[in-house]
Structure formats: C-alpha cells, structure tokens
Amino acid sequence: MEKNEDNLQALRHSASHIMAQAVKELYPDVKLAIGPAIADGFYYDFDKKEPFTPEDLEKISQKMKEIVKQNLKFEHYEKPRDEAIKYFQEKGEKYKVELINDLPDANMSFYKQGDFVDLCKGPHVGFSGSLKHYKLLSIAGAYWRGDEKRESLQRIYGTIFFTKEELDKHLALLEEAKARDHRKLGKELDLFSVHEETGPGLIFWHPKGALIRKIIEDFWKDEHLKNDYQLLNSPHIGLLDLWKTSGHWNFYRENMYSPMDVDGQDYMIKPMNCPFHIMVYKTHLHSYRELPIRYAELGTVYRYERSGVLHGLMRVRGFTQDDAHIFCRLDQLEAEIVSVIKFVLFVLQTFGFKEYEVYVSTRPEKYAGELEHWEKATDALKKALEQVGLAYQIDPGEGVFYGPKIDIKIKDCLNRSWQCSTIQVDFNLPEAFKVEYVNEESKTVQPVMIHRALMGSLERFFGVLIEHYKGAFPVWISPVQAKILNITDSQEEYARKVLAELKNIGIRAELDARNEKLGLKIREAQLQKIPYMLVIGDKEKENGTVALRRRNSQEQKIMALAEFISLAQEEIKNKL
RNA sequence: GCCACCGUAACUCAGUUGGUAGAGUAGCUGAUUUGUAAUCAGCCUGUCGGGGGUUCAAAUCCCUCCGGUGGCUCCA
Q1: Strand B closer than 7 Å to the CB of A549?
Q2: Does A288 lie in the same domain as A381?
Q3: Which residues in window 114-133 of A are less than 7 A from strand B by Cβ?
Q4: A5, A103, A458, A486: which has the fewest Cβ within 10 Å?
C-alpha cells in the first residue's frame, strides 16, 4: 500500500476501529460514540461508567495487538437506514442511532472487521495486519457532540504510523515538546510564575522575564512610532455604562468580571481597550485629512476564562494586548489592512517566526451591525490578503460580534500553531459611540475602525517565544547577553573592568566572581542559556583579551575585548 | 465549568498492605584559588495543598474546598 497522506488518514481511522473493537471485547457494556482520524493520530469516544485507567490502556493496547495479528479484513457494505437503526437499537448503541437519524442518506455505510461492526463512511486499510506501529497516548473527557449539556464521554487518544521509525520520531517530538514547555523553562530560567495565593491565570514577571518584556515593548513602541501610530495609555477600569454602549455588556458579558461599586456607581475592569481609545478620539473634532488616525497601546485587560482552560502563559485571565485602533475612511480600509498585514509580518519575522496559518473569520450567529457592512468588511480583508499574497482559509462564523477578522497563527519550530495576531474590522463601535469625522463637503461621517494586535498578548507571545527558542533566546532578546567568568580572584579586578565596559555600551552583562571552579561557572551559564561566556584568566588579563565561548558550541576563541564588543554589537543590531 | 488524574522541603522526586517523613539539588558555614558542563566536608529545611471525617493511629482510607495536568468547550 502506498504511504501517502490519504492512506495515513485511512490507517489512523482503521486504528481507531481496532481500538474500539479491543475496548468492546474487554468491556462489552461500553457504548460507542465516534472515532475519527485527527492531525497526528486518532481517538475514539466511549460511554463507560467506570473511568479508564492507565492500566486499562495497556490492556487495550495488548488486545489490539491480538487483533492486528489475526489480520482481519476491513469489509465494507451498506444497509438501508431502517435496518441500520434497528441493528444498533438492538445492540443498545444509542449514539449510533442518533448519528443515523441525522444522516440524510437512504443507505448507511458500514465497516466490519472480525465481529466488530461500525457505522462508517471509510475509507480503511485492507487488513488489520497493517496496524503495527501504534501507541495509545492518553485518556480525556469529552462531551457527546462537543455539547457540555450532553453526555460526558471518555476519549482515548492514540497515534499510529506506517513505520516504527515514523512512530519513534513522533514520540520523540512529543518528548521534545515537553522539554520545551514554557512552564518548565519559565521556572528553570526564572522568568515568571503564577501563585495559588493570588489566583490562577495571573502572571508574575520575574526580573529576567520582565527584562525580556521591556525589550519587546521598547522594540514595539519604536516600530509603532516609525509606522505613524500614536501611543496612548488608558485606565484599567471604567463605568459600566461605557460597556453597555459598546455592546460588550450584551455580547461579551460571560468573559467580563462582575461590576464593582465605587461611590454607588458600577465600574468594570476592562476586558478590551477599544472604548477607551474612542474616548481619546472623541476629544477633538477630526477632519478627513487627518485620517487614518492610529492609536496604539500596550493595554492590560482582564477576562474571565473558565478554570479548565487556563494554561501557563498561553491562556490567562489578565494579559497585555499589543493593541491598536485605527480610525479610517471607508476608501482607506483596504490599504490600511494591507499595511497592518505587512507590519504584522515584519514583527513576527523579527522574532524569528517565518511560517503562518491565516484565517478569515466571518459573521457569527450573535452579531451587531448591518449585513451590508459585514460583507464590505469581509471583502476588504480578503482583498488585502490577496494583495499581500498570503494564502488563507475561511473560518465560517468565527468572527467577533462586531466584525469579521483575520487571524494569523504562527508556527513554531515544532510546527505547532499559535494564535497571536488578529486584525478586526468594526463598523459597530463607531456607530455605538457616534464616532465621526468631517468630510470634504463639511458633513459629519462615521469612520471605520480596525482593531489589531500584532503579537496578540505579551503573555502568550512570550510563551510561544520561550518554546520556539527552548529558552535560548536570540542575543538581542536575552536578558543576560554575556556572562564574565574569572578563573581566580586575581583576575577579578580586570573582570570588573570588562563588566563595566560592556555595561557602559549597553551590553547586558553579569560577572560570576564566586570562588568556584570554571567548570561549574560554565555549566551554570550554559544551563541559563546565556549566549556569550567570557572566560578571563591570567592570559586574558595580561593581554586585554577575553576567551569567548558560545552556548551552542564548545569551541573557544580568544580575542581582544574591543573585537568581542564589535562582534556582539553587530549580532545585537541584526537581531540575531 | 465538565470528565479523568495529580498536589510530600525553595526545586526534582522516594515513601511497601494505615504505625505521625526521606534523597539529590538549592541555601548556610568552613576548607579549597581552581582554564571550559557539577571540588570537598558539616549544618539547616516540612502544619505531607486547606478544612472536616473514619481509626488506638492517616502523607497513606472517605468527604469537601483550593490549585495543577491532559482533554472537552471557549479564546489574545
């Protein structure tokens, strides 16, 4: 059999059936839900009273082995729907009956291997004998049809490949992902923490993390000023009425915290920055000549997230968006979106992210504003993407309540994607807040608003950055760029001079002057993933040199201090 | 929020069928002045996540709350 992608899907789908067969043989009372192939494996959902244990997984895996050995044929056949319903009703498979009831076809497609029969449109591999290189990975809860009001099922995840090598490679990838986990590295590199005492989903940036954040923020602000944005700062709370006007109270309440009483008035902690930027805009009457007006802010927002979804820096309850709101004329919309897309790509590429997945999300069921506006805005987003030459997919119904959006997911070095950047068109807020400008004919007109975030949130972006680089940040971002390691006390004075000189020209350097052996100092600097280690012994002291060792090689290079400085400056300038 | 699992020293983890806790690292003290990934010795460290219960006795069993993990759902 050929080993192309489609066949891999068939292989995985078949593995899911074999797993279901094994489960049915071991636990006959289990009811079957669904079991598809997914991106890197397969799963099957079961309705079983007692929870599956890790030991069960082992048993199921063994049973699967037996089934594979029997080399059963996957047989395809069809049954008329009433017969199919009757068949599953008799077997007590209520989920299958429900599935059939929702299918339009007159005949139902079945697959059978050995005594195991499943409703399934296929395709499958020919024989169970091909299912050799699999592994069951985890047990998880899942709702029937993804609906939390319905039955809670147990899902078993697994993965399978055609060859042992591919399976091993995939398992190694999972290990590698564990080693890169930003929560683990965040602790090891002392970057951030969360505390039970302060509440989940609230991030504490430690000195090294906060320093990285400052570097990111400085870069961000400088680039925004270069790109004709103006920087704002707005408060963290505001009157509830504002959020009623904006529509958030109607459409976004489940993500907002409860109001707090201040002098008898209800205040909200902000989940978004947009209404505040509108306040600034509205302090003046604006001419069409001024547009587009671009307000940018690193705005910290708080949103209620269900406890089960919180995850390190990736999903939190308080975060800082690298937000901006652009007020422009309708005829400027497309060009403005184009320049935002270009800006996004520039920023992402600077941080080393070169691959993306782009989505255009269209109108959701709960929405504000007029249909005609939605269409215009969606159209502008698509056209802008086409103009920049970015391929995109449509995400139907996934837009925000006030307008359609472009989401750019970045792919990290393990090919995992993370949603960070977002560009959203909004006709609703200008209407709600009566945002205006004066046109050529001296008439007041409503501008269009674009909400956009390039990195999304500093927290998530930081998390992705940590995992992408495995904590070994490029020199320009590294909190400590150079560690000076003297061998004995007698070079300490020279080492201090080196330190002062590096600091003086803006290189972030530290001196490890402890009375320890060089091996230990190297080891610790290495574990902290510091890009430059500068060893200083008697020879270096006498000659005014440093012995450079980089974190990514064992090789040492002796050079004049001035030479190291220009080398480092060059790499920092080029954001390597 | 829901399902499952987990929560022992600052960190990583041991702790047999219930008999009130241990190892490495870190920290502190001292010795050592060391040339590219761990020098040696000594010392210190805990309401075993919180509360309640069962028991003569609970880190271990039960209940409950909090927090974490993997998913579901949702999202920057």
Answers
A1: yes
A2: yes
A3: none
A4: A5
pLDDT in tens, A455-499: 999 999 999 999 999 999 999 999 999 999 999 999 999 999 999
Instruction: Indicate which CATH number applies to the domain containing A427.
Output: 3.30.930.10
Please confirm whether the linkage preceding A292 is cis (ω < 30° from 0): yes
Give me the CA A519–C1' B33 separation in Å, rounded: 14
Single-letter residue type at A519: G
Pair (A408, A526) in one structural domain: no
Q: A502-539: per-residue pLDDT in tens?
A: 999 999 999 999 999 999 999 999 999 999 999 999 99
Q: Is residue A476 part of a domain?
A: no
**Per-residue CB contacts under 7 A with strand B, chain A residues 309-348:** 309-312, 315-317, 319, 321
Domain that holds residue A486: 482-573
Please tell me the distance from the alpha carbon of residue A134 to that of residue A159, in angstroms, as a whole number.
Answer: 6
Q: Are strands A260-262 and A265-269 parallel, antiparallel or unpaired?
A: antiparallel
pLDDT single digits (tens) A334-358: 999 999 999 999 999 999 998 889 9
Domain count of the fold of chain A: 3
Is strand B within 7 Å of residue A420 (CB)?
Answer: yes
Residue A448 lies in a domain: yes
A349 and A245 both lie in a single domain: yes
ipTM of the complex: 0.92
Under the banding of pLDDT at 50, 70 and 90, the label for residue A413 is low
Longest dimension (CA), chain A: 93
- CA A517 / C1′ B31 distance in Å: 14
pLDDT for residue A1: 46
The residue type of A254 is E
What is the rounded CA–CA span in Å between residue A381 and residue A234? Answer: 28
Report the CATH number at residue A534.
3.40.50.800
Q: What pLDDT is recorded for position A3?
A: 53
Annotated catalytic residues of A are: 274, 303, 321, 323, 325, 405, 451
Assigned domain for A249 exists: yes
Q: Is A448 within 8 Å of A291 (Cβ atoms)?
A: no
